[in-house]
């Protein structure tokens, strides 16, 4: 599969959302620390965007100035900017914009301009050897537009205030910035994107997969994946239906030495009982009625790669015995065959039931259980990781917007609160279904409502910060709505009463998705209107 088209690049939206989330970090951490983290993420993302651009246009050589300008302008405009080329020569490439991709919020977090500097500069340095990015005008500092100069000659750039970039191996990220785990997650996710989109033949039409891991529980899963992936160890993934067990298995494969070999996923519970052995191990011609030719089973087809056995608990005792032999000896025989075949296939198994109980009851072989349970990964249900929900919602909505050709910018703050508080018995799969229905029926750019089932109590794992934000948002909403009713939707009067600027009030209204026009008195119809 080819890499995602640059013109339809969905991870750009993911990057934009992720960077906007860093605004909180800019407030809570020191400015210098926030800028360094943003720069590190931008450098990694810039590599990915350049690779995608090159793949679409079949470019192997260094970019010329025209191609470079096309890349950075296209990238910025894809996430909401209004960039255009001002000038280009051997000394400097200058672009300008009348709109910031990060919106008005950039004025509260000017550190986000580091994202532009790092993406522009790192790409330029890789292609021209040197670059110095000078932010000549910035909306974040109150200018009426942005203008960025990318200087390619160090002599011309001498004395100018900007950040220099050179074509040299990038130093390893400072592990103290966001912790050792975050650095590993970024690097591994970049590898997963590249491996899965370009080399895995079992993902037709699927863009670079993303494992959302904002929650501590999922970060532990990623840590375990990184440790176990390079090894030959057999892995057992435990988790409820719909939590993403197959995606985790694909990540293990993508990050292993087997990444260029096949990854084959099999739902054992969906195979008719009489065909399981034939499907997994293959059959010889004439082995049974209808066997008119030799059939290579999934174990042979995955030779050198990875075989993912979902719902492994559904296998019959006879199949369990043959599976144990493959795991122990690396050998199998096709159904109806008399020749022993050697296979080198890594097994990743998954289940949503209690295998220990199945072993105790005698429905699952104890020796097989210990063979597949060398490493056990437990994927937490969605109800235990509410921190992941906003990022999952964003990713899912971007895919659905492309599928249904709709302009969907997100969900309202009130709906997001409901989504975070819901128990999600169907996990990520249920979230996808709920959002797909909402996208189909919405008439707005922002989804305001969604059909949710009966809810259990909201988990305490939501965390104090999330609960506090929900309470504050609810209080702010009620206060603003009361003020708008009192002044009949006049934002200027509301701002004066609250001792704020009208701009600040408008920003808060936009954040909470409150339309002040709904509080203004309706003009009575005149005879002309009638």
The outline comes out as flat
Quick one: how many beta strands? 14
User: How much helix, percentage-wise, in residues?
Assistant: 40-55%
Determine the N-to-C terminus distance: 60 Å
What percent of residues are in strands?
A: 5-15%
Count of helical regions: 19
Structural class label: alpha/beta
Unreliable stretches: 1-30, 170-179, 181-186, 195-208, 456-462, 524-530
Mean pLDDT figure: 77
| CA gyration radius, whole angstroms | 27 Å
For the largest beta sheet, what order do the strands appear in spatially? 1-2-4-3-5
Largest sheet: 5 strands, antiparallel
Can you walk me through this structure?
The protein is an alpha/beta fold and 530 residues long. The protein contains 19 helices and 14 strands. The chain has a 5-stranded antiparallel beta sheet with strand order 1-2-4-3-5. It has a 5-stranded parallel beta sheet with strand order 7-8-11-6-12. The protein has a two-stranded antiparallel ribbon with strand order 9-10. A hairpin with an 8-residue loop joins strand 9 and strand 10.
Short description:
This protein is α/β, with parallel strands linked by helices.
Based on the model shown, name its key terms.
single chain; 530 residues; alpha/beta; 5-stranded antiparallel beta sheet; 5-stranded parallel beta sheet; 19 helices; 14 strands; 12% strand; flat
Helix-strand blueprint:
Layout: H1 10-28, H2 31-57, H3 65-78, E1 83-88, E2 92-97, H4 113-128, E3 130-137, E4 146-151, H5 154-157, E5 163-166, H6 175-199, H7 216-228, E6 235-238, H8 245-254, E7 263-267, H9 276-281, H10 298-301, E8 306-310, H11 317-329, E9 331-332, E10 341-342, E11 346-351, H12 355-361, H13 366-372, E12 375-378, H14 389-404, E13 410-411, H15 413-421, H16 427-441, E14 446-447, H17 464-486, H18 491-498, H19 502-511
Helix pairs in contact: 1-2, 1-14, 2-4, 2-6, 6-7, 11-13, 14-16, 18-19
């Amino acid at each position: 599969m080819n890499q995602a088209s640059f013109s339809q690049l969905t991870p750009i939206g993911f990057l934009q959302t992720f960077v906007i989330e860093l605004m909180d970090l800019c407030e809570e951490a020191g400015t210098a620390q926030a800028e360094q983290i943003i720069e590190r993420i931008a450098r990694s993302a810039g590599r990915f965007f350049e690779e995608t651009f090159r793949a679409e246009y079949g470019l192997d050589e260094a970019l010329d100035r025209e191609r470079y300008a096309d890349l950075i302008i296209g990238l910025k405009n894809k996430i909401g900017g209004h960039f255009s080329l001002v000038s280009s020569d051997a000394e400097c490439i200058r672009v300008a914009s009348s709109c910031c991709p990060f919106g008005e919020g950039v004025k509260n977090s000017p550190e986000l301009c580091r994202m532009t500097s790092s993406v522009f500069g790192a790409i330029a340095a890789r292609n021209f050897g040197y670059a110095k990015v000078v932010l000549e005008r910035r909306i974040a500092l109150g200018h009426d537009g942005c203008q960025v100069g990318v200087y390619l000659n160090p002599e011309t750039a001498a004395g100018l205030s900007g950040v220099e970039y050179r074509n040299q191996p990038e130093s390893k990220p400072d592990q103290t910035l966001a912790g050792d785990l975050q650095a590993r997650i970024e690097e591994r996710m970049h590898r997963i994107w590249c491996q899965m989109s370009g080399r895995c033949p079992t993902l037709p039409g699927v863009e670079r997969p993303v494992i959302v891991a904002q929650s501590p529980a999922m970060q532990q899963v990623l840590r375990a994946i990184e440790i176990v992936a390079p090894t030959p160890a057999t892995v057992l993934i435990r988790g409820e239906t719909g939590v993403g067990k197959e995606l985790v298995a694909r990540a293990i494969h993508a990050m292993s030495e087997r990444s260029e070999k096949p990854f084959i996923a099999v739902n054992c519970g969906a195979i008719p009982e009489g065909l399981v052995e034939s499907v997994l191990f293959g059959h010889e011609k004439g082995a049974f009625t209808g066997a008119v030719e030799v059939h290579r089973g999934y174990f042979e087809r995955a030779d050198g790669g990875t075989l993912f056995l979902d719902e492994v608990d559904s296998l019959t005792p006879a199949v369990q015995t043959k599976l144990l032999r493959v795991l122990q000896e690396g050998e199998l025989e096709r159904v109806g065959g008399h020749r022993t075949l050697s296979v080198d296939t890594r097994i990743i198994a998954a289940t949503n039931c209690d295998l220990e109980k199945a072993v105790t009851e005698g429905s699952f072989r104890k020796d097989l259980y210990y063979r597949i349970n060398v490493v056990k990964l437990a994927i937490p249900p969605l109800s235990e990781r509410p921190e992941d929900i906003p990022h999952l919602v964003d990713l899912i909505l971007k895919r659905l917007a492309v599928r249904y050709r709709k302009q969907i910018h997100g969900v309202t703050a009130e709906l997001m609160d409901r989504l975070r508080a819901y128990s999600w018995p169907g996990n990520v799969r249920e979230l996808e279904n709920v959002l797909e229905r909402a996208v189909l029926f919405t008439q707005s750019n922002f989804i305001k409502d969604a059909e949710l089932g009966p809810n259990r109590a909201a988990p305490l794992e939501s965390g104090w910060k999330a609960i506090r934000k929900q309470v504050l948002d609810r209080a702010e909403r009620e206060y603003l709505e009361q003020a708008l009713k009192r002044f009949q939707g006049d934002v200027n009067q509301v701002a004066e009463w609250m001792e704020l600027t009208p701009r600040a009030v408008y920003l808060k209204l936009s954040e909470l998705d409150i339309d002040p026009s709904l509080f203004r008195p309706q003009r009575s119809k005149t005879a002309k209107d009638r």
